[in-house]
C-alpha cells in the first residue's frame, strides 16, 4: 500500500492505470478471440480501481454515482477499438498465410 501511495496520482491516472486496464482487456480479448471481452474486462477493472481509490482515500465519504469517472467510459472504448483492430489484423495475417497454392499455367 505504501508503494501505491508514494506514486503521484497524476502519473497513476494517466499512465499506470490505463496501461494496465486496457492492456489486460486486450490480452483477454486476444486469448478468447472475442472482441467484446476487452471492453467488459476494462470496464470491470476501471470500476474496481475507482471503488478501491475512493474507499481507501476517502473512507468516510458515501459512494455515489459520481464515483464513476469519465475514464470508466473512455478506457473501454479504447479497449474496444484496439481489441477489434488487433483481432482483425491477426485474422488478415492468418488468411494471408493460409492461401492455397495455385497451379501456374
Automatic annotation (TrEMBL):
Keywords: Membrane, Transmembrane, Transmembrane helix
TM region positions: 12-30, 36-53, 65-87
Domain of life of the native organism: Bacteria
Keyword Transmembrane found: yes
Name recorded for this polypeptide: Uncharacterized protein
Organism name: Planococcus donghaensis MPA1U2
